[in-house]
Amino acid sequence: MSFRLFWIVACIIATKFLVNYSLRTVVQETSYLRWNTDFPSVSVCETDADLGGIETTAEKLFGADRNVDIDSYVREIAFFDGECPACDEICKNEVECPGNFTAISALARVSCEELITDCQWNERIFDCCSNFLPLRTEIGPCFTINSIQTIEKPKLNMIVNSLTGPGTLSFLASREIFVTEIDNDLSVREADVSGRKCRFPLEASDLREHDSYSYAACVTECRLLAQNRLCNCTHHFMRASGELMEFLVIVIIVEFQVKPAVESVYRCTCMYPGSDRLFNGEFSAYDDDFHSKVFIQMQNLPSTRFKRYVSKTNIDLFVTIGGLLGLYLGASLLSIVEIIYFLFVRKDSRAQESVIPFLK
């Protein structure tokens, strides 16, 4: 019995090593004429406001005869970055500050129509706010084009290839982008996630607030859970539902010191996406008195990409084991029946033979 157990354990261990050995193989491809490349998603986020906008918002919320110090509170809540000095200096001592942070932020920030105008894709005009869709991020609401993370799906087809040429997106500051692609063979999707060390967009089962997987989505949820572990809450810019709620009492922001406290408990183990693209470029900008003109342009189409293969699939495993058994042991498909007979039937036959002499 110990001899059989040894070989069963040995086969299981050998099979595990065979599956995990040299699972990923990356090769370089240069057949770029047939490639379709997705233009990168672009987000426009308002990170601060002019004082006139803050004053108008504060007047709508608290009236013209308000304490003017409340304006600082409105600004720091509307453009929250993890710290709120005004919450401690003003709200604790002088003024009763409201806790409806989401409403304050929405009222203080400008709309898409005010933020983005004169949009063009490859010199074709398109409606900005039908394609720059709202997206909640850690730094506040943004407007994003060509992203899988928006609730509404992208309407503008932003794929570039040898027929369309390099893509150019402009909206009312020049960035040339060089692209290196990473592609995957179909066999990569069949491999286990722990073996290939990457995830595809549809493999978002571990994410609670995002339907599609990306590295940024994973890190965001990691930080959200870190905040929740501290105080069973999260700040008002986070995408949260269910028991994860925004701060209800302003003191929590101050006493928990959200930014340094959360950074101290970050333990993110996020995998990179399986289909990724590396964008590199240099940034320059120019402004006039009223607006900034933004150009995001690919200097050229990608001419090289890396393709990931799985060197050992499940079929390869069975073929390899079958070949080894056939070569060294003369085994075949009939050997499966023989193994069952050897382990179970033969044992029972011997037990019956050992009983028969005593019956005589």
TrEMBL record:
<keyword id="KW-1133">Transmembrane helix</keyword>
<keyword id="KW-0407">Ion channel</keyword>
<feature type="transmembrane region" description="Helical">
    <location>
        <begin position="317"/>
        <end position="344"/>
    </location>
</feature>
<keyword id="KW-0739">Sodium transport</keyword>
<keyword id="KW-0813">Transport</keyword>
<protein>
    <submittedName>
        <fullName>Uncharacterized protein</fullName>
    </submittedName>
</protein>
<dbReference type="InterPro" id="IPR001873">
    <property type="entry name" value="ENaC"/>
</dbReference>
<keyword id="KW-0812">Transmembrane</keyword>
<keyword id="KW-0894">Sodium channel</keyword>
<comment type="similarity">
    <text>Belongs to the amiloride-sensitive sodium channel (TC 1.A.6) family.</text>
</comment>
<dbReference type="GO" id="GO:0005886">
    <property type="term" value="C:plasma membrane"/>
</dbReference>
<keyword id="KW-0915">Sodium</keyword>
<keyword id="KW-0472">Membrane</keyword>
<dbReference type="Pfam" id="PF00858">
    <property type="entry name" value="ASC"/>
</dbReference>
<dbReference type="GO" id="GO:0015280">
    <property type="term" value="F:ligand-gated sodium channel activity"/>
</dbReference>
<keyword id="KW-0406">Ion transport</keyword>
